[in-house]
């Protein structure tokens, strides 16, 4: 379970809300049971249940199990898409190990808002499920122009373009495991002006994910899976 404050040995932690429900009703923990905690700062900790109630569970930390992992320098910039499909992107991108998810609003986006609490809950649950000790950073949605204007000079921007680009795997292999991000369009794709603006960015590398037009969420996850296979992170 991820907790908000940094942990130390022998501290008491009060778990409430859905996490308490999960511990007491789903896992049915009782005093003395072991629980693993994570704080997204120091790492993963062994803890034990001191008292389990229906609404809150008191825990005490024992010792650190693993230091917080070093997350590979990979960002995902997915255009906002329909809620259930974007939820899938949040969950799977977390599992695939991204450091940062930076949603983008483009001209053809049907959605332009993201509920930050809900998004945070999805990535936290995904991180717990796959035993990540670091949460991906979740940025507020920005317009495409702003994303391009602020794109770091020393970070590649792999632009997933269904109209053609370099095959992704060899492009990653040639670049080595540099700092990078993936930009993926919405259901209706990028329009011509957007495509030209992205391609004009010196850090942009147009890439292809094969001959088929993938759904936006498939494209985002395929790109990350290829990154993982090539960079090994
Ligand atoms: N209409 C479908 C949907 O509802 O999801 C397909 C959308 S596709 C145009 C969305 C985005 O996925 C594109 O803007 C592009 O970034 C990426 N994409 C899809 N297929 C791709 C491919 N073969 N190569 C590179 N990027 C691709």
From TrEMBL:
Q: Which residue stretches, if any, does this entry annotate as coiled coil?
A: none
Q: Name one GO molecular function term.
A: methyltransferase activity
Q: Which UniProt keywords apply?
A: Cytoplasm, Methyltransferase, rRNA processing, S-adenosyl-L-methionine, Transferase
Q: What is its main location?
A: cytoplasm
Q: What compartments host this protein?
A: Cytoplasm
| Keyword rRNA processing annotated | yes
- Determine if S-adenosyl-L-methionine is one of this entry's keywords: yes
CDD domains on file: RsmE-like
Q: Which residues form the Ribosomal RNA small subunit methyltransferase E PUA-like domain?
A: 15-60
Which EC number(s) does UniProt give?
Answer: 2.1.1.193
Where does the record place the Ribosomal RNA small subunit methyltransferase E methyltransferase domain? Answer: 73-227
Could you say which enzyme class this protein belongs to? Answer: transferase
- What chemistry does it catalyse, as a reaction equation? uridine(1498) in 16S rRNA + S-adenosyl-L-methionine = N(3)-methyluridine(1498) in 16S rRNA + S-adenosyl-L-homocysteine + H(+)
What does the record list as GO biological process?
A: methylation
Q: Which family does it belong to?
A: Belongs to the RNA methyltransferase RsmE family.
Q: What does this protein do?
A: Specifically methylates the N3 position of the uracil ring of uridine 1498 (m3U1498) in 16S rRNA. Acts on the fully assembled 30S ribosomal subunit.
| NCBIfam families per UniProt | PRK11713.3-5 (NF008696), RsmE family RNA methyltransferase (TIGR00046)
- Listed PANTHER family: 16S RRNA (URACIL(1498)-N(3))-METHYLTRANSFERASE, RIBOSOMAL RNA SMALL SUBUNIT METHYLTRANSFERASE E
The molecule here is called Ribosomal RNA small subunit methyltransferase E
Q: Which organism is it from?
A: Qipengyuania benthica
Q: What is the lineage of its organism?
A: Bacteria, Pseudomonadati, Pseudomonadota, Alphaproteobacteria, Sphingomonadales
């Amino acid at each position: 379970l991820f907790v908000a404050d940094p942990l130390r040995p022998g501290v008491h932690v009060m778990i409430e809300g859905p996490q308490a429900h999960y511990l007491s009703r789903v896992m049915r923990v009782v005093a003395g049971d072991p629980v693993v905690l994570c704080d997204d700062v120091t790492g993963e900790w062994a803890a034990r249940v001191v008292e389990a109630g229906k609404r809150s569970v008191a825990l005490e930390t024992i010792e650190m199990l693993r230091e917080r992992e070093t997350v590979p320098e990979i960002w995902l910039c997915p255009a906002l898409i329909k809620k259930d499909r974007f939820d899938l992107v949040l969950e799977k991108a977390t599992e695939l190990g991204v450091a940062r998810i930076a949603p983008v609003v483009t001209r053809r986006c049907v959605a332009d808002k993201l509920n930050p609490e809900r998004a945070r809950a999805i990535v936290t649950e995904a991180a717990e499920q796959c035993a990540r000790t670091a949460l991906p950073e979740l940025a507020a949605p920005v317009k495409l122009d702003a994303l391009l204007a602020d794109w770091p000079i020393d970070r590649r921007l792999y632009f997933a373009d269904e109209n053609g680009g370099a095959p992704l795997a060899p492009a990653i292999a040639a670049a080595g495991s540099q700092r990078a991000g993936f930009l993926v369009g919405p259901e209706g794709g990028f329009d011509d002006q957007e495509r030209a603006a992205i391609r004009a960015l010196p850090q942009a590398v147009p890439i292809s994910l094969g001959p088929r037009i993938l759904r936006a969420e498939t494209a985002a996850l395929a790109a990350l899976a290829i990154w993982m296979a090539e960079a090994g992170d």
